[in-house]
Design brief:
The chain is of the alpha+beta class and about 160 residues long. It contains three helices and four strands. The chain starts with 19 loop residues before the first strand and ends in a 13-residue tail after the last helix.
Length: about 160
Amino acid sequence: MPKMNVESFNLDHTKVAAPYVRLVGITEGPSGDKIYKYDFRIKQPNKEHMDMPSLHSLEHMMAEFSRNHHDHILDIGPMGCQTGFYIALLNDDSYENILIVIENALKDVLQATEVPACNEVQCGFAASHSLEGAQALAQDMLDKRDEWTQVFADEK
């Protein structure tokens, strides 16, 4: 296959083994700031996916709660394939730090009693949420915490 411009299009999705967290790339800005982009994969590509209400709620919760654990989170956005999220942060090259941030945010999800910004004023599709679904995804990820650093099936 020809090399594509998008990093994930060059990833052999048949060889990865979710769940995992992997560094996708580093972008350096003109002033020397560096953006670190991570693939936070929750579901096995082409085998399973997150349902939209659960994914949507987990996105709201991770976006809100992760910022309680790191001052330079730029974005947490869902993948269109519904198998995970991209996480971008500024000027922190520590893989261990992002693992801790994700773990702590997921623990916050388990303690939540509501989905942040789950209303028509703050959300574009407020009817599509599931606190219980997001918490089930968070619990499943935390139960598999020891697998997060192993991206490919032959590492497991």
